[in-house]
Amino acid sequence: MSQTDEKKAPAERKIFAPVVNEETAKFWKAAEEGKLLYGWCLACNEPHYFPRSFCPFCFSTRVEWREASGEARVYSYSIMHRSPAGPYTIAYVELKEGPRVLTNLVDCDFKKIAIDAPAKLVFKPSDGGAPVPFFTLA
Amino acid sequence: MSIKGKAYVMGAFEHPTREAPDKSTPQLHVECARGALEDAGLTKDAIDGYFCAGDAPGFGAMSMADYMGLRNLRHMDSTETGGSSYILHVDHAAEAIAAGKCSVALITLAGKPRTGSGGPRGGGNAAAPEAAFEMPYGGTTHNQYAMCATRHMHEFGTTSEQLAWIKVAASHHAQWNSNAFLKDVVTVDEVLASPMIATPLHRMDCCVVTDGGGALIVTSPEIAKQLNRPKVRVIGAGEAPKGTYGGKVDLTYSGAAWSGPKAFAEAGVKPGDIKYASIYDSFTITVLMQIEDLGFCKKGEGGRFVADGNLISGVGKLPFNTDGGGLCNNHPTNRGGITKVIEAVRQLRGEAHPKVQVPNCDLALAHGTGGSLGTRHGSATLIMERE
Ligand SMILES: [Zn+2]
How far apart are the first and last CA of chain A? Predict the structure, then answer.
């Protein structure tokens, strides 16, 4: 059996509305403006994702959240066939800025997905919440 | 302080059921506890330490302890690391015994995802800090472990055929286990022809879903001496969490890379000394990565190591999961850690099925990965010897 016999991510799969809390509210507010934020530590100059109020590497609170370029490449992926709404692809993509981000690869030919393939940011509406960042093949 | 030689696994019981529509989850826990006590030759009131994890219904350890009537407890531990919890609990029980906090520890696992309401949820609750950044993407155990396989294949040239050999070896063992959920021997071609679940993992790369459970009794050396059972001594253990590290996630290795060396150092033995290994087999890729990380072969050479029957007892160099493992025998309540310890104890006692018993098996390892290999998980490694 081919590993990639389905072409398109189905439109029907519901996207969970992200649970927003006090720390992450501004991430989801930026998402409404089509921006993906990641954390940048001013103490150790390391990027992190998902963004936090502190640096998970050096524990400094001198952290700012920066807008990602949206450019990335595929680190790994799996096409999920056990899904009532049709196959979908889970993936980690590596942002141009460094962090590897869990996501789905959407709106693309699943046959063309490969490790290291260039990918770019797209937002999709969630089921009653903020828009969610996804990636598609660039 | 080391736990080496400070505690013994003196009771082990695997519930024979794989489908239990007429029993409650607490009832399965107590049946497992009874089985392990009878195996050890002890009675309920000897228990002064109780260990359970997220599958135990109720309020930490208290609901089950109250339900079972454990009146003499002076130590409780409900550490939750998913399916590896019960391997880690043996370590924690040994620590508590070494510190004089208890002398007879009971560990239970049970549940009924096959006929009941599903297994414990483990992670995935909405209050978890990662939830908003993961839940929208439809992550499941299948596709998260599968991403590890995709990356392993990319970096090291591992193939689906090599992964299939892990299932084939498990099936060769399961044919001798009358309680095994799947008893048929399968071939590499049959694994590859089974339906794709999450690329590159096929249905036969995945463990079974079964009801059931198991229990262990861990005792002090003084109690062990009074019991009429072969003595299985705990000589080394390690535990470690692994996560996504702020975006520095690396899918090519597991927490076994940390828990394994700690356990080997404490035991004072090397991977090559191990006669039998219980290796957590939620998926075939789980086995392959853990075998590398535990040092049974070099990183990246796992595919070649597991191929051609090298994991089959009596055939290969590393007999593994001789009960048929989670891939064929049993994965009670979607958590295989306790059955990993139980089969290692059978091997050390010489009580495994004669067709799979490793000759003169005096040193064994049990290792588990609980949670998700693709995001965050808890690794636990346990080394035991026959005295
Ligand atoms: Zn920092």
Answer: 27
- What would you measure as the largest C-alpha separation in chain A, in angstroms? 51
Q: Determine contact, residues B232/B349, Cβ cutoff 8 Å.
A: yes
Chain A residues whose CB is inside 8 A of the B195 CB are 1, 81
Lookup result for tokens 């090599």: B162
Task: Give the mean model confidence (pLDDT) for residues B83-105.
Answer: 98
Cross-chain Cβ contact A102/B148 below 8 Å: no
pLDDT at B24: 96
| Residues of A whose CB is below 8 A from B142 | 78, 80, 82
Whether chain B has a CB inside 8 Å of the CB on A135: the answer is no
Question: Cβ(B135)–Cβ(B190) under 8 Å?
Answer: no
Could you tell me how far CA B332 lies from the centroid of its own chain? 10
CA of B383 to the centre of ligand 1 (A): 37
| CB-CB neighbours of A12 under 10 Å | 9
Rounded distance between C-alpha atoms, residue A104 and residue A69, angstroms: 18
Q: Is A72 exposed, middle or buried, given 0-12, 13-18 or 19+ CB atoms closer than 10 A? A: buried
Give the DSSP per-residue string, A4-62.
T---S--S-SPPPPPPP-TTTHHHHHHHHTT--EEEEETTT--EESS--SS-TTT--S-
Bridge partners of A66? A38
Q: Is the ipTM of this complex over 0.85?
A: yes
Question: At residue B121, does pLDDT exceed 70?
Answer: no
Q: Do residue B198 and residue A78 have CB atoms under 8 angstroms apart?
A: yes
Give contacts of A91 with chain B, Cβ < 8 Å: 147
Task: Read off the pLDDT of residues A66-78 as tens digits, 9 standing for 90 and up.
Answer: 999 999 999 999 9
Amino acid B217: pLDDT: 98
Kindly tell me if the per-residue pLDDT of A37 is higher than 70: yes
Q: Has residue B123 got a pLDDT over 60?
A: no
Q: Which domains can be identified in chain B, with CATH numbers?
A: 7-117+211-233 (3.40.47.10), 131-208+235-386 (3.40.47.10)
What confidence score (pLDDT) does residue B119 get?
56
